[in-house]
Amino acid sequence: MSAYHLSESKSIAMMKLLALCFFVISLINIPIAEARIRHYKWELKYEYKSPDCYKKLVITINGRTPGPTILAQQNDTVIVEVKNSLLTANTAIHWHGIRQIGTPWFDGTEGFTQCPILPGDTFVYKFVVDRPGTYLYHAHYGMQREDGLFGSIRVALPDGESEPFAYNYDRSIILTDWYHKSSFEQAVGLSSIPFQWVGEPQSLLIQGKGRFNCSAANPPMKADVCNNTNPECSLYSTTVVPGKTYRLRISSLTALSALSFQIEGHNMTVVEADGHYVEPFVVKNLFIYSGETYSVLVYTDQDPARNYWVTTNVVSRNATTPPGLAVLNYYPNHPRRSPPTIPPSGPMWNDVDSRFNQSVAIRARKGHVYSPPATSDRVIVLLNTQNRVNGKTRWSVNNVSYDIPHTPYLMALKENLLHTFSQTPPPEGYDFANYDIKVVQNNTNATTSDAIYRLQLNSTVDIVLQNANTMNPNNSETHPWHLHGHDFWVLGYGKGKFDPINDPKKYNLVDPIMKNTVPVHPFGWTAFRFKADNPGVWAFHCHIESHFFMGMGVAFEEGIERVGKLPSSIMGCGETKHLLKP
Questions:
Q1: Of the residues 97, 127, 357, 391, which has the fewest C-beta atoms closer than 10 A?
Q2: Residue 56 in contact with residue 85, Cβ under 8 Å?
């Protein structure tokens, strides 16, 4: 036989073998994972809406608030084209909980990773969702988030993979508080002398819907301004089938309020927090802080002849805001049929112990524990205080109140524009021995700064958040802190002043949950550990809108030399203007 025929025979045999392999794969149904591209086109506009029956200007995405839910699978690429049609306002969108590995310029944090998107411009975000779980997106420019620019991100496992818990249906619910004043009005008051506090929100919204009592308004409001018969503010209703298990992805994007969430007559089993599996535990009410996400399992085992209340209420503040209401609609009852009972009241607003105990109870699920490094390379203690700086009321960390720079850090560091922000390192602690966290302090040496913490790439860093008294006697507030670009191990919570000698001995190094947002409770401390392994510049701040606006935040830089070529689309402000080629 000729060499040609031998070669042809081998080719045919190889083709047959490949065909057989694909046939066998199809028979045994082995999934072949393939990452996909999820493409979204959004237009941001100001529109008049009445989410709680009071008509005001809100920011919508394609005419909606909350905006569209981003649905993807692990390792998919998400592309979002954002057209800013706000006419008179800049914007930026942060992808909350998405670590942006390899794409720090698309974190969406104005002043840190990009210049704002100007009116009329279109900006394209492109990033990989590398972990399954429940995440968020929201404005990260000024205080725009509370004007309605937010939504959910739901990342599923690849086809063929399953989670360590079973459920029949999957729902996303965002909890927010709602002000009738715009974020612009609030920002002016917060920056004024004398200081004008934003006050308590007028309403609580569940999935963008609530009900303000128009008839009780003082002074009275006209019907074209506030109307309780407006169908736009009908209560949110989610329909369920009796005898099924529902996964409810509960997220909070409140501007100010810590919340309790409860469903009348139903227990909730907590199974996920910030994209990580939780060792399951059952709650009657779920405490949730701004920036947190949870998944709870709810079994619909109650009387199917009626509907049930879903409620939220403010905790940690003696608030005047009425509870938020929604309806758990048992099919086939009408979705608008009110439950026959009085909505259940939540826990007492000042029950700190219950909130503290829930925080401690959240641990990593067995079989899904990612062990933290046994020790850290660096410890940074951040004292949370309220101060007066140059006559203005500010929030501070170690007596330094944070200012966002005009030239974003990512460009300033990458392009060696170091003169655009302070090079004096911020303090890594406070006067532990002499500072009394239980009394009002003068803090006369408080300053403002835009300096950053420089972290060694791949080092392990411990952060200790220490709470203290505000400028009001016997008052300490709950602060939810959010870290961009990372997840961290929650090592422990404590009451009173953190003891740097003895408290680290009590850290949970066995099964700590990983999160991206964590509360520090009144007059208490919270400790966590993270690996500085994501090159870029990352914000770490209180997720209460007014608190971050007033200076409650810091910036971390790590491995800036490893960051790739910056896209020109993120430039155009401050001293980045000259970097754009004509």
A1: 391
A2: no
